[in-house]
Amino acid sequence: MVRLRLLLMLVASFATTAVFGVPAKAKSRIQKQSFGKTSDGQQVDLYILTNKNGMEAAITNFGGTVVALKAPDRSGKLADVVLGYDKLNDYADGKAYFGAIAGRYANRIANAKFTLDGVTYTLAKNDGENHLHGGFNKRVWTAKDVSSDAGESLELAYLSKDGEEGYPGNLSVKVVYTLTEQNEL
After folding, report:
1. Which of 126, 144, 141 shows the shortest CA–CA distance to 172?
2. Which pLDDT belongs to residue 20?
3. CA distances from 153 to 8, 34, 102, 106, 149 (A)
4. What is the pTM of this model?
């Protein structure tokens, strides 16, 4: 229920920004710290967004993953409400998609193949004989602080190149996480 509520608030935030424009720039308090390095040496960071109520969202640029979300309960006590790992290696080696951004397809593609305009594409088999979620969860995204009066905001961008995971065409993806003063992510 909490995840559904957070998802609905996230969608509403995107819709409001799209209709009324980008809010004015505000002084950011986003904390950035090292989360480790990938097996091929890429630096991975953890970004901690905090609001005036003490609520925190910890997001890594590895998979655009929400690592932790410390939200207040009815008594105001903060608790982490998302499943996740404490270390980068657990995300890199794990099979779960805890808090990650789904790739080009958010589900399974049977036999890791599909046909588009008469051309059959063979995808990476990452779920037995199937293809699951498109592979964005294992990629390092480019992070940018885009905080505004709406709250602390982290923009993550990624270019999925033609042929990655077997998909045709380039796909430029951008996601913005905003933590509001109303405890919305």
Report:
1. 141
2. 43
3. 17, 19, 20, 24, 10
4. 0.81
